[in-house]
Amino acid sequence: MFKILVIIFAFxxxxxxxxxxxxxxxxxxxxxxxVQNKPRHFYVSNNLRRKTGSPITAKGELIYIxxxxxxxxxxxxxxxxVSIWQxxxxxxxxxxxGNDKVSPNNNxxxxxxxxxxxxxxxxxxxxxxxxxMPGKYSDRxxxxxxMLQHPxxxxxxxxxxxxxxxxxADPVLSHMVSPNSRKLLVSQYTVNDMGIKVYRFNITxxxxxxxxxx
Length: 214
Description:
Elements lengths: L1 H15 L45 E10 L9 E5 L30 E5 L5 E7 L10 E8 L2 E10 L8 H6 L9 E6 L5 E4 L2 E3 L9
Parallel strand pairs: 1-8, 1-9, 6-7
Antiparallel strand pairs: 1-4, 2-3, 2-5, 5-6, 7-8
Protein name: Protocatechuate 3,4-dioxygenase
Keywords: Dioxygenase, Oxidoreductase, Signal
Pfam families: Dioxygenase_C (PF00775)
């Protein structure tokens, strides 16, 4: 009986001091400053697939994007504005429409897709988006552009890529990010109970935050 109690106590102690694997070994996320196709105004919602008030959803595979934003000390950053923009399922950017690049009558233009979104991290640094899998744009492989803004940090830009593609063939990723760091920008996915792919993209900022102990 005594041995059983010792084993139970040891297990509970190990659980109490277990470290969240998501925030262990926080490695700075590579920055990609590429504002091509960045919208002038971001759609104020974390749902790019359905515009507010509309019952119609955008075409393409439904996916979820989730992640955690931390500083390099693995401290979660709350109230971080996370903005994204991407191509639709056909590889068309909404910001390209009406500026002589894409006609609204183009059959690859999806009027129900917002093309951009914005959300704010919670007190644990978590964020999430609902969107569709982006298509290839020009010579670019499918990706999502990120912009992070917070009063205590410099504006940070990067891009998220998807597993299952030959991402080293992407001209921006291959030219702007070192080979050893590229995997940090490739998101892995799991499938939830509804059969929807959930991609996780954690972001670690290198600048000092107000939470850092001097």
